[in-house]
Design brief:
Helix 3 (about 45-70) packs antiparallel against helix 6 (about 130-140) and helix 8 (about 160-185) runs antiparallel to helix 9 (about 200-230). The protein has 15 helices and no strands. It has helices at about 1-15, 20-40, 45-70, 75-90, 95-115, 130-140, 150-155, 160-185, 200-230, 245-255, 255-265, 275-295, 300-320, 320-325, 330-350. The protein is mainly alpha-helical. It folds into two domains: about 1-150, no CATH class; about 160-350, no CATH class.
Length: about 350
């Protein structure tokens, strides 16, 4: 029965998705993903109630503002704060992630309205976004729980070719539903309190590295594909991070939209790289500390972010990326091994149980 429902809804995407206007497609996307999850038993009545409330708020933003224009910029952060609390209470979604999304949307809008007072930012599209575009970016249900962290501009971009959409869907399903379950079934998760010796801790970090990548990147791939099927743009959140030769490259490949958000709204806001070298290093370190706190207010997240900041500041001081770019195969391989070792060690702190 569930497969029949899901097949029908998927068919409806192709039949009706491209014929609707953008607001209708936004609402249809939310309904489709919600019903699909319900068909597989992945959401309960509380989650469905939360989604219904989000749909209602989305409708209010689209309809009321289109008719009256009463929802001005200063009211949006207050309204979205209410949405944030509702979503957290009923849907149990990532409240730090939504907080960043709210702030990002408000800052993007402010910079569009005040270009002479804002720093240069290549991720901003020209013009002021409509009420629908702001509402859709903030209230789109598929990305609330897993990401990515998008801007209004991301949804203005056209979707990729059909071949790429189906390729991303294939690998998303492969990672999020097949490989991750095989990994968990045949490779038991190491228990934190049973770890003894450096090897056991490294295995703990590596196991969680693989598990997180398969689950997180697969889910983000499917979220992006869902947006594409309805004609909206959405960035891919992972770009083969296990190939990274340096920590700097790792953060260009891992959770790409979080790194972009931190760069645009934290690092650049602190002055970016247009200040003294010491200040640049401090800005970089603080940006990564904040990226750690994005995951939650806990000591292990704070320590993990600080460690990433130390890695990046050290690489910048040593000119690691420039050296690796000119190095031979053996040095590049050694750098890859060392980078993956550092990443694995950092996951030990991230997933520590206390």
């Amino acid at each position: 029965m569930t497969n029949t429902i899901f097949s029908f809804l998927t068919f409806a995407v192709f039949v009706f998705g491209w014929r609707l206007n953008r607001p209708a497609r936004g609402l249809a996307l939310t309904v489709w993903v919600t019903l699909s999850l319900a068909a597989f038993g992945q959401v309960d009545r509380h989650s469905l109630l939360a989604v219904a409330i989000l749909l209602l708020l989305q409708f209010i933003l689209i309809f009321v503002n289109a008719r009256t224009g009463v929802l001005r910029f200063k009211l949006f952060p207050l309204l979205y704060a209410a949405v944030l609390l509702v979503a957290h209470a009923l849907l149990k979604v990532n409240i730090p992630g939504i907080s960043y999304l709210v702030l990002s949307s408000s800052l993007d809008l402010w910079m569009r309205l005040n270009p002479e007072k804002s720093l240069p930012n290549e991720n901003l599209a020209p013009g002021v976004p409509t009420a629908f575009e702001r509402a859709f970016n903030l209230l789109s249900f598929p990305k609330l729980a897993v990401g990515p962290i998008t801007s209004v501009k991301d949804h203005w971009d056209p979707p990729p070719a059909t071949e790429q959409i189906f390729r991303v869907i294939f690998f998303g399903v492969l990672k999020a539903f097949i490989l991750v379950n095989l990994w968990r079934h045949y490779v038991p998760a190491p228990a934190w309190h049973d770890l003894h010796g450096p090897g056991a801790f490294l295995w703990f970090g590596f196991w969680n590295y693989v598990n997180l990548y398969l689950e997180f990147s697969g889910a983000c791939d499917l979220v992006a594909a869902a947006f594409w099927l309805f004609g909206f743009g959405c960035p891919l959140n992972f770009n083969r991070p296990y190939l990274s030769l340096t920590i700097s490259e790792f953060w260009k490949r891992w959770h790409v939209t979080l790194g972009r958000w931190i760069r645009n709204h934290v690092f650049i806001a602190f002055g970016g790289s247009r200040v003294s070298p010491g200040r640049v290093s401090l800005n970089l370190f603080l940006a990564m500390v904040i990226s750690g706190l994005w995951h939650g207010l806990a000591w292990n997240y704070l320590a993990w972010g600080a460690l990433q900041g130390i890695f990046l500041v050290s690489e910048r001081a040593l000119g690691t990326e420039a050296r690796i770019a000119k190095a031979g195969p053996l040095v590049r391989f050694s750098s890859w091994v060392f980078t993956q070792l550092l990443v694995t060690c950092s996951w030990i702190i991230f997933f520590a149980k206390y």
